[in-house]
Amino acid sequence: MKTQSLLLALAAAPATLAHTVWTDFYVNGVAQGDGVAMRMRNDPEHASDPLSDLSSNDLACNVNGDKGVSRVQSVGDGSTLTFEFRSWPNDPTKERIDRGHYGPCAVYLKKVDSAIDDPGHGDGWFKIWDDGYDASTKQWCTDKMIDNNGLMSVVLPKGIKGGYYLARPEILALHNANQGDPQFYAGCAQIFVEGTGNLVPESTVSIPGYVKAGEDSVSWNIYTADNSKYPVPGPAVAKLSSSSNAAGANVKAQSTQTQGLKPAGCICQNANWCGTEVSSYSDEKGCWAAGEECWKQNDACYKSSPPTGNAGCKLWEAKCKQIQDACSSGNFNGPPNKGKDLTPKAETIDVGLVMPTAGVTGGSEPKTSAAAAEKTDKPAATSAAQVKTSAAVYTSTAAAPASSAASEAEPAQNTQSDNYGGYVPKLTKTIQQNAATTPASEIAPHPTKVACPAGYECVTVYTTVVKTEVVYVTMAAPERKRESLQARRYKRVE
């Protein structure tokens, strides 16, 4: 019987599993832009690698996450935040995370004096939502996130103290936790909550420190244990209070955002980089100088590009090429399309399922209905009384139908309260992505090795995989253009 049980486990946890990385976020369904106001690992090759050292400061905001970025995104009190996960940082068309990465999810906040300067790690974190295993739908939180197109949405508790925060989405993959390899995926968004509330958490925790190696939550055997009894890692969802004795009472509120604002004159964005208009010109010398000014900004854009890609840099590169062509053709009045904002219009999407922040003041269960999902251009409406998605709402039922996405999951063993309002159908709607998004990833995620549990007889299954390598040479073109530009300019001067 052990061999049969192990074969089921191997079917649930293949030898090679795609990892994931948090790449962008939405405010009330409106895209903020890939990498904008986000702390994430800088190295594209390892951006989706999991965090396994539970004592490392990296557990807070990921590797390189102790350094803030230049942008801070403003959000309204009680807004819906949606975090998007991808297995390939700059390609949302690929899978979001392998289905074998079963595990819980959570979202934490930390009130800070400066969203840019605070290192992230340490005390001050409080949880606003979590979810583990739901026996009634036979799903882990990761299953629900995958079925929701890689999107994880929560409502900010209404009435929290206004000002700067770090927002931290978290996924824990348990497929190899029983072998001492729990895999966390996390990052931090730098946000400014616009509000005049005075609610703060009654208690906070330190990251790292909120979980420790060996605890049930990070060493759970999902293949043999009663998953309905799985203890979600970290503290309970925070209770908020206006009491002067609460843990966050001494953290100051800010009523006006003064840091991390979008720079004045920004006409093109790529993550946290902004391009500004080049100098006007009316002669040949000024034309070539403006071109060189444009290419210099283009270099800075490419060099600062995070793992989410350089789509904005390519738009700016086209502008530089336009100036160069104008100079070459003798058109010395410019720049062309002066002051035109090249940043694509922010996309509004249907965020699908909104996870309730039950137990937190201002949180509530999502509205449910039998109506079919529809696309809308209006952001989600939120209040202390109800939470609506930007379009889709789902009917709560006791169990999933046989043909549902839930039937793909492993069998449940017992029941557990459902933080999502019941069965969550698999979404079939394709979310339209920004036209400027890079079409393919530059670096593939690294595989996860799955060990054989002690006391079992392992069977190795070999699968032939065709690997395609794509090599991008993004800097060569701008450099060659600059060289020809310089030569042309010096020839004109002589």
From TrEMBL:
Keywords tagged on the record: Carbohydrate metabolism, Cellulose degradation, Disulfide bond, Hydrolase, Polysaccharide degradation, Secreted, Signal
What is the uppermost EC class here? oxidoreductase
The cellular location(s) given in this protein's UniProt record come to: Secreted
The family database entries (InterPro entries) matched by this protein are listed as:
AA9 (IPR049892), AA9_LPMO (IPR005103)
Q: Which cofactor does it need?
A: Cu(2+)
Reaction catalyzed: [(1->4)-beta-D-glucosyl]n+m + reduced acceptor + O2 = 4-dehydro-beta-D-glucosyl-[(1->4)-beta-D-glucosyl]n-1 + [(1->4)-beta-D-glucosyl]m + acceptor + H2O
Main subcellular location: secreted
In the record, what terms sit under GO molecular function? cellulase activity; cellulose binding
Cellular component (GO) terms are: extracellular region
Q: Which residues cross the membrane?
A: none
Compositionally biased residues, Low complexity? 402-412
Q: Where is the signal peptide?
A: 1-18
Q: Does the keyword Hydrolase apply?
A: yes
One of this protein's GO BP terms?
A: cellulose catabolic process
Domain Auxiliary Activity family 9 catalytic as annotated: residue spans? 19-230
Region annotated Disordered, chain positions: 356-385, 402-424
What does the UniProt record say this protein does?
Answer: Lytic polysaccharide monooxygenase (LMPO) that depolymerizes crystalline and amorphous polysaccharides via the oxidation of scissile alpha- or beta-(1-4)-glycosidic bonds, yielding C1 and/or C4 oxidation products. Catalysis by LPMOs requires the reduction of the active-site copper from Cu(II) to Cu(I) by a reducing agent and H(2)O(2) or O(2) as a cosubstrate.
Name recorded for this polypeptide: AA9 family lytic polysaccharide monooxygenase
Organism in which the protein naturally occurs: Clohesyomyces aquaticus
